[in-house]
Amino acid sequence: MRLNLLRLALAGLVFCLLAAGSAVAAPTITSLSPTSGTIGNQVNINGSGFTGATAVKFNGVSATFKVNSDTQITATVPATSTGTVSVTAGGSTVTSATKFTVTPGMALSPAAGHPYVTATVSGAGFHNSSAVDLYFDNLDVALFVTSTTGTLSAVYQIPSSAQPGQHWITFVERSSGWAAQKPFTVQTDWAEEAFGATGRGVNPYENTINSGNVANLTASWSGTSGGFGNQSPFVVANNMVFVGSVFGNIYAYSNTGVLLWTASTGSDMEHVNPASALGLVFFGDSSGNVAAYSQTCRSDGGVCTPQWTTNIGTAVTAGLTFYKGTLYAPSNDGSIHTFNPTTGVQGTPIYGFDTSHGAVTTPVAFDADGTFYYGASTVFEYRATTYYGYTTYGGNLSPIAVNNGSAYFTTTDGLVHRFGNGAWDVATSGTGCAAAPAIALGSIYAGGCTTLGAYSPKTGGLLWSIATAGIQGISEANGVLYVCEGGYGANIQAYYAYYGGYLWSGGYCNSAPEVTNGNVFAAFGEITAYDFSTNVGGRPAPAISSLRPDYSLTPLPSGAVVVSTRK
What we know:
- It is globular, with a radius of gyration of 29 Å.
- The termini are far apart.
- By secondary structure, it is mainly beta.
- The protein has 3 domains: 26-101, Immunoglobulins (Immunoglobulin-like, Sandwich), CATH 2.60.40.10; 104-187 and 544-563, Immunoglobulin-like, CATH 2.60.40; 208-531, YVTN repeat-like/Quinoprotein amine dehydrogenase (Methylamine Dehydrogenase, Chain H), CATH 2.130.10.10.
- The chain has a 5-stranded mixed sheet with strand order 12-18-17-14-15, with no helix packed on it.
C-alpha cells in the first residue's frame, strides 16, 4: 500500500514538473525602436514570448503588426496619442516600461488616384480638442477639431479639376502651427482594353485635354512596339506604358518615353490586349501563356522575369479583363479562363451558353451586376445570375460595350446593335468593318467603313454622322472623340463628341487610342505619345508658413466627407 502511494506521489510530481516545463512563458518587452514617431510609422518591439501574439496596442489603440520572431514584433503606429505599448501573447498581456511619444503626423489612403476619388486622411499627435485645417495644395478646404487624444480623420474627395501629377494634403493646427503633410498623385490608368471591364472606351476622369486645346497636341516620343503594322496592344498604368508585340516581346516605358524594362512571353500577342491591376501587368499569347509582371520590376531597360506564368493549354484569343479581383482570359477552347491575379492559380473557366461556338474572339465585358457578354465570331453569348443564352448575327462581332443592363456592339455586316431590354439593330456603313463602339455623353459612338456616327442608346436613332475612312477604334475623353481611321497605316483623328466637328489629326494607329493624364497614346509599328509642349506635372510641397486658414469655415465632425467645390 505504501509503495503504491509512493508511486502515485512520484507520478504527480512528474506531471507537475512536465506541466510547468510546457507552460508558455509570459511575454516581455525590453525596448521600443524608435521610441517616438507618428501615425503610419513602423516600430520594432523587442522582448520575448511573442510567438502567437494576438494583439498590439499603442496607448490602448489596436495596431496592425507582424511577428518577426519570438523576440521581435514590427507594428504600425495607429491614430493614437502618447502612451505605453502593450503586447498580448499566450493569454498574457505585457506593457512597456517606457512610453511611445506620438508626434504630429498623417496617414493617407490611397496615396494616388483619379479626380473624384476619395482618400481617407487620418491625423495624430496634435493637441487635444484643437482646431486643425485641412488643405489641398494651398487651399483651405475644411476645419476639424481634434479628439481628446489629439487625433482626427476626414474623407476627402479629390477635386474634379485636379490636374495630373503630385499634389499635397496638409493638416495645420491653428493654435500651435503643428503640421503634417503627405503627397497625393493624381493619375488615371487606362488599365485594360476600352478603359475598363465594361468596355465603354471612355476615360471619365481626363481633365487636361479638351475640345478647346486638343489641336495643340504634338508628338512627344515614340518607342519600339514591334516594328510592323500588326496590332501592338497596350495599357497605361501608374504613369507607365506597357505594350506587347506580334513577336511576343513586351516593352515598358515611362510616360516620358524612357525604356524601363523588356520581357518576352515567346508568342504572338497582337490580338491580346494586356490588363493591369494590383501593381502588376498581365499579358497573354497565342501559345496559351498568361503571365504577370511587376510594373516596377526594373527601371534600367533590362529584362524582367514574370512573377508567375500559367499555360491554359490553348491559345489566348482576345484581350484580358480584370474584374472584382479576378483576371479573365478568352481562349480558343470557347471558354473564359480565370486566374488569381497574385498567384496565377486557375479557377473554374466561365462561359455564356456553352463552348460549342468556337474560339472567343472578344474580351469578356461585365455589367455592374456581374452579367457578362462576349463574342465568338458571329455568336453573341451572355450569362446572368438567372438567365443565359446566345444569339447568332450576320457578321463577326466587335468587342462589346456594356451600360445599364444593355450590351452594344457592331458586326462586320454593317450594323450596330443594342442587346437587352429595348434591343435594336441599325445600319452603319459598308461591310467588313467592326470597331467596338464607345458609350459616353448619353450617346453610342459607332463607325462603319465610310462613316462615324452618334446614336441614341434608347432607340438607335442617328444623332449625327460624318464621312470617314474605315474605323479601327474609338475612344472618348472630356468631350473629344479619338478615332483610329483608315486602312493599313490609319491615322488618329479627333472630333467634337457633340456633333462630329473636326479638331485634330495625329500619326499612325491600328487600334483605339488611349487618353489619360493629358496624353494620347497610339500604336502602329511604334508606340507614340502626344501631349502639350508644356506638359502637366507635379508641384512642390507648399511651405507650411504660406498656408492661410479660412476663418469662415465651420468645424466638421471627425470622419466627415469633404467635397471641395472651390477651385
